């Protein structure tokens, strides 16, 4: 996967993504980062201006269409020399669809992705109409620019690219797969500050451990993310009862039946 980032602050992107897991993965060639300075494409040879006042008035400056479009064309042409596929262009904006794990795995299937990071009061609408394929936000709050959101998305997408994580399993079992949050985990020592590791995890019985983990995932999701829990319940409806039994109390029963379903 090749990430191309159109930005006014390429050093911010390269600095952060060159460290830790994404840095190691790019050293090994599983992913690459190419942060391009939009300012380098300004037609204003003297001041390299990239922004101007907004028509109709209003506070702040707007990023102009021309430098962004020329920057995009240069990237698109270099990508199309290698593949004949037109790359997706993600504009990171609080006005986009809210990013989630499903979108991350969808984007991870691409060979090249272009991110456009806005600044100031935004970007001239005409260039967005011309080049953007996906409008994506990282949440309902406003940041000073698109670099941090782009890096958040790139990090989440990168770890789904084969080879990036050492342990393939950790990408499979963690939070948000099946709409469940991850179960609690423990490491040594067996007792810390008077708190003991749940004995079942020391039992060596993998089936029981899996059952316990699933139960904890469900409990945790229900408590912390009732919205996700509802989705999970829809996808894992309680099995119809075989024999007529006296009715147990509502959700307790739903969960125990759901646990059976997944065994
Ligand atoms: N730019 C500014 N705020 C943002 C957000 N919440 N998501 C994506 N891009 C942004």
Put the structure in a nutshell.
This protein has 263 residues and is α/β, with parallel strands linked by helices. Helices cover 41% and strands 16% of the residues. It folds into two domains: 2-167, 3-Layer(aba) Sandwich (Alpha/beta knot); 191-262, Orthogonal Bundle (Trp Operon Repressor, Chain A), CATH 1.10.1270.
Outline the structure in words.
This protein has 263 residues and is α/β, with parallel strands linked by helices. The protein has 2 domains: 2-167, SPOUT methyltransferase, trefoil knot domain (Alpha/beta knot); 191-262, Trp Operon Repressor, Chain A. 41% of the residues lie in helices and 16% in strands. Strands 2-1-6-5-7 form a 5-stranded parallel beta sheet, sandwiched between helices. Helix 1 packs parallel to helix 6 (147-158) and helix 3 (65-82) packs parallel to helix 5. It is elongated and about 75 Å long. 25% of the residues are buried. The model has no long low-confidence stretch (mean pLDDT 91). Adenine (ADE) binds next to strand 5.
List the helices and strands and how they pair.
Elements: E1 2-7, H1 10-17, H2 20-27, E2 32-37, E3 51-53, E4 61-63, H3 65-82, E5 88-98, H4 101-107, E6 112-117, H5 125-131, E7 134-137, H6 147-158, H7 168-173, E8 191-192, E9 195-196, H8 206-224, H9 226-235, H10 250-262
Parallel strand pairs: 1-2, 1-6, 5-6, 5-7
Antiparallel strand pairs: 3-4, 8-9
Helix pairs in contact: 1-6, 3-5, 8-9
The structure holds adenine.
